[in-house]
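Protein modeling request. Please complete all fields; requests missing the sequence field cannot be processed.
Requester role: graduate student
Desired output: 3D structure, token encoding
Chains: 1
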Amino acid sequence: MADDRLIVALDVPNALAGLQLAETLGDAVSFYKIGLGMLTGGGLALANELKQEQGKRIFLDMKLFDIGATVEAAVRGLAQYDLDFLTVHGDPYVVRAAKEGAAGSDLKILAVTILTSLERSDLDGALIKDGTVADLVVERAGRAFDAGADGVIASPNEAALIRALPEASGRLIVTPGVRPAGSDLGDQKRVATPANAVKNGVDHIVVGRPVWKAADPRAAAQAIVAEMQSPQAVQPNNS
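Delivered output (239 residues):
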């Protein structure tokens, strides 16, 4: 039985490969992420096929960032596809514009805090202000929530800190950078296992390569779900 806390990233070359992977995974996965890399390979058509024909939930990972009017217009256009999640950069004016664009739909706006592939040295190169990555992530999350974000994207390492914010009540925390024990980290730098991510208060985890690169993708997805449902994943206040 699928657990929609697991979102599988369809970071494959095109829509045909995405459909083939979804067929392989079958009822083991109910939620998929489609990102920028798939956009020119039929990503929106794939999203529509999976949503309307197969009843899957869809997370469109666009990380929109532009002037407010452009973001609002882009989100209004995307909202017509009846998708579930959409990412935008976590700057408050971007979040507010995205929420305006999503008005009247069920599309949830998720604000990106700091990419899980970045560490402090990367932020220095981008001229981001001083402070630990964790502190900056929590600050950006709080400001995004104040601007109306339905949730945030953050690494599992910061999830517990975000969940502790008063503003986080009733909001979503979605985390990439989740790797089952023994998996290759790839380009991720701030990571945790599925059980630890859930224990830290995460609502959904996003996993790509450990599933679609596996010899048996369906078994890999089922193993991740089993880990999320294990006693090790129980949050302390629920035990």
